[in-house]
Amino acid sequence: MTTPLEDVTPAERARSTSFYEASARTRLELLLDAGSFAEFIGPEQREVSPHLKIFDLPEQFDDGIVVGHGRLDDSPVFVAAQEGRFMGGAFGEVHGAKLIGLLRAASQIASMPVLILFDTGGVRLQEANAGELAIAEIMRAVMEARSAGVKVVGLIGGRSGCYGGGGLIAGCCSALAVSEPGRIAVSGPEVIETNRGVEEFDSRDRALVWRTMGGKHRRLLGAADVFADDNVQDFREAALELLGLIGPFGLDRLKAEQERLADRLSRYGACLDAVDIWAAQGIAHAETVPQLPADQFITLADRIGRTSRDAR
Amino acid sequence: MTLDDILASLFPKGHEIRNDKGVLLGSATLRRGDKMLVLGVADRTALGVDEAIRLSGHVLASIGRDSGPILVLVDSDSQRMSKRDELLGLNEFLAHLAKVLIHADMNGRPTIGLLYGHSAAGALLATGLATRVLIGLPGAHPAVMDLPSTAKVTKLSMEALEEKAKSTPVFAPGLSNLVQMGAVHMTWSNDASLADQLEALLADMPAARDQRDALGKARGGRLKAADIAERVRDLALQAR
């Protein structure tokens, strides 16, 4: 970097910052309008997990999640960002309760959108019951918020992906944006391999992990509506785009989702690999999809990929 | 109690519930004569994409056609752990099932979960934990995460984990721990008629508002969750 820092615009800084590599706090700082973020129950209040000391594990003052409010293109938004580098971004009692409180406020206000920057392996094993229940409460709170007219957007592109109960919460959101390294699944590669054997899933085969759970496959399937390149500015633009697209939630959305998922099963239920699904979608040279640069992939996905718009 | 015993005790006036490879679909007649939609997972079946889509379809077909409460019976494995299920987007199928149940509950079709066997992880989130009131039957043995997996991740011995489990309900498997956390609202008795207990619950259903964090606090299982959520909510309301 030869340019002095003060000459770099926030958008340029956001464009040159990898979402995957950034911390939760950096993601929020660069995603929102400059200087607009304010946190609720910040680390200075030291609301740590009461359970990690049972396991002699270090605590973190924000318990691995940052929640607050800010502005996006001048409009107020609530935000929550998980820190994948603390306990794999996993949901514990305090971590989950912060997001629940945010969603409950959003339900009451009924107009301010919520952005959730997922980065999680799922339930935190050391407080598994509290984490599982927090996820159930968050799913309920997301549906109550959406029913009240709140747009809930998930952004997925962190180190820990969006696994376990995180994947279920993502499935409850109004819309998702995902980048290539942002994986979405319930069972992680190691969990499948441990339970079912390496023949079922070889967790060390990284190419297999990316093409089964990664952002490109999720975009082509229609699980995520927007594919973002791995930088914070792209996620900011994706969030703005999605907020403009989301319509009101109601029973018709759930009926459309039932059809959308049943249609997916009947079309691709017999496919053995993501490449077979992409080929069935009509993509020529489907095996080259993982190598496509973001711009070319987005062009392809916009032409061929499915969408969950109005059907989730 | 076997599933047949449970159904006989719940619905002395009869039911039409079919068990097709572990997927329960049907309806039953309540004592006062009205119908209850019934669905569930039996025989410790794993909940995968094929099972979930049938369960959500059963509820959606009933919305607008029927009225009355909905019962979700649970004796499942975890979510199905397979390449195929993940390839097809299992997270969306499980979320969809939970969303359909939550939507029904919020719109005049109160939901009750009845955990009578095993369940775990994503399967429990998409079924019992997506209902308004989750009941446990004696002998139910849910395990959000099993102790051997926890031992592997935490690098602690099973003995050490079992010792720690005595002092906290927060991580160990078992029905009583989920009761203390506020996840399971109450445990029914096997010695009384389940129909009586169901009737008593239906006559006194709690409000649709999620009160599990308050329950967990009152029972000493989750001392921080309700307060943290309330503090964030207050701050967020002031900030708008």
TrEMBL record, chain A:
SUPFAM superfamilies tied to this protein: ClpP/crotonase
Name of the protein in question: Biotin-independent malonate decarboxylase subunit beta
Keyword set, alphabetical order: Transferase
Every CoA carboxyltransferase N-terminal domain range: 1-251
Gene3D superfamilies: 2-enoyl-CoA Hydratase, Chain A, domain 1
Superkingdom of origin organism: Bacteria
InterPro entries, per database record: AcCoA_carboxyl_beta, Acetyl_CoA_COase_Trfase_b_su, ClpP/crotonase-like_dom_sf, COA_CT_N, Malonate_beta
Pfam families for the chain: Carboxyl_trans
PROSITE patterns assigned to the protein according to its UniProt record, in alphabetical order: COA_CT_NTER
Automatic annotation (TrEMBL), chain B:
Lyase as UniProt keyword: yes
Pfam families hit by this protein: MdcE
Keyword vocabulary terms for this entry: Lyase
Source organism superkingdom: Bacteria
Name of the top EC class for this enzyme: lyase
This enzyme's EC code(s): 4.1.1.88
Keyword match Lyase: yes
Single GO molecular function: lyase activity
Descriptive protein name: Biotin-independent malonate decarboxylase subunit gamma
Organism: Bradyrhizobium diversitatis
